[in-house]
Design a protein that fits this description.
With 357 residues, the protein is of the alpha/beta class. It has an 8-stranded parallel β-barrel, surrounded by 5 helices. Helix 13 packs antiparallel against helix 14. It is elongated, with a radius of gyration of 24 Å. The protein starts with 11 loop residues before the first helix and ends with a helix. It binds phosphoenolpyruvate and manganese (II) ion (MN). The site of manganese (II) ion has 4 residues, from loops.
Length: 357
């Protein structure tokens, strides 16, 4: 597909920045949905989200109320005038949601990672034959091509009101974020598709309420088209994602603190590239720090076993191997040698310090 084609996208009303989509992770009951929606609407929110079908990690988790929740979403439209959005993961969901005039569909991170499911959804949209707005979340794994591929399938089904949602990427182990932001990936997506509206979902990146405001500000600073934030009338009793949901009142406070910055468009591409460099630099530093921590453990082991700090043969093998791998990645051998020598020198210094402690 020609990338520029994807750039037509959502109509004008969606292009005013930043667009806020808010609502509960899950639709739970008519009362919960209407209470939340009315409060959000009274704070000026125009698009309501609510998950009807919930992809839960483990069986036994709350899997959503299913089709019985659709009339409640319809009631939200009627009683508040908001547009409503829900997640679809298969043909049946698409057909049921569109039959009750759900205005915007989004595709979840587990679904966008699955080309079979994406194709099934695309086929259902094609059969429906209207240009409904569809927002595609990034796949759970950090794979930009897979994300773009998912959007291409929707595009090929005739959908031009297309947007993306950055919700972070799955990771293993304990981290500050539930899903790592890896901002360079949506930034690269935006660079390749300058007119694609990309929303940020700080709720699913954060996994906890306290981080939502700062993530939202970062997203706006990076020129995201809008935010999709989970909001529940009583988050502590929410049936899913309760730690990351905020009340409509708290959401209002968060939104009021956000600063909209003026962006000059002429340097936008350069800014995007620089943002990527900044994030990659951060990653390099984190990796170096991690490497030094392992180095220290090796130093400790050598001390306990009375081993010499420098093992020349190991160093030579390592250097030879990495110079070769570097060349395959397009890195000049001298460059790789210089960097490795500097890293090795610091590792040796650190180990000598430990051995002599
Ligand atoms: C959601 O939006 O509630 C959801 C399930 O999101 P994700 O697909 O990003 O995990
Ligand atoms: Mn959720």
């Amino acid at each position: 597909m020609i990338m520029e084609d994807l750039q037509q996208l959502l109509p004008e009303m969606y292009m005013k920045r930043p667009i806020i989509i808010a609502g509960p992770c899950s639709v739970e009951s008519e009362k919960q949905v209407l209470t939340t929606a009315k409060e959000l609407a009274s704070n000026g929110i125009k698009i309501f989200r609510g998950g009807i079908w919930k992809p839960r990690t483990s069986p036994g988790g709350f899997e959503g109320v299913g089709a019985q929740g659709l009339p409640w979403m319809k009631k939200v439209k009627e009683e508040t005038g908001m547009l409503v959005a829900t997640e679809v993961a298969n043909r049946n969901h698409v057909e049921l949601a569109l039959a009750v005039d759900i205005d915007i569909l989004w595709i979840g991170a587990r679904t966008s990672a699955n080309p079979f499911a994406m194709q099934e959804i695309a086929d259902a949209l094609k059969d429906y034959g209207k240009d409904v707005p569809v927002l595609v979340k990034n796949p759970v794994n950090p794979d930009l091509e897979l994300w773009i591929g998912a959007m291409q399938r929707i595009y090929n089904a005739g959908i031009r009101k297309l947007g993306a949602i950055h919700r972070g990427f799955s990771t293993y182990g304990k981290h500050l974020y539930r899903n790592l932001p890896q901002w360079h990936i949506p930034i690269e997506l935006q660079r390749r598709m300058p007119n694609l509206p990309i929303f940020c979902d700080p709720s699913h990146i954060a996994g906890k309420r306290e981080l939502i405001a700062s993530l939202s500000q970062q997203a706006l600073d990076m020129n995201f088209a809008g935010l999709i934030i989970e909001s529940h009338c009583d988050p502590d009793v929410a049936l899913s994602d309760k730690n990351q949901q905020v009340t409509p009142e708290v959401l209002n406070l968060i939104l009021n603190t956000l600063v909209l910055r003026d962006k000059s468009t002429t340097t936008e591409n350069l800014t995007l590239l620089r943002q990527q460099i900044d994030h990659i630099n951060d990653e390099i530093l984190e990796l170096l720090a991690k490497r030094m921590r392992v180095t220290s453990e090796i130093g400790q082991f050598k001390k306990e076993h009375d081993m010499p700090v420098i093992q020349q043969a190991r160093y030579n093998d390592l250097m030879e191997h990495l110079v070769k791998s570097g060349e395959e990645l397009g890195l000049a051998p001298d460059f790789v040698r210089t960097i490795l020598a500097a890293i090795h020198e610091e590792s040796v210094r650190k180990q000598i310090e430990i051995v002599n402690r």
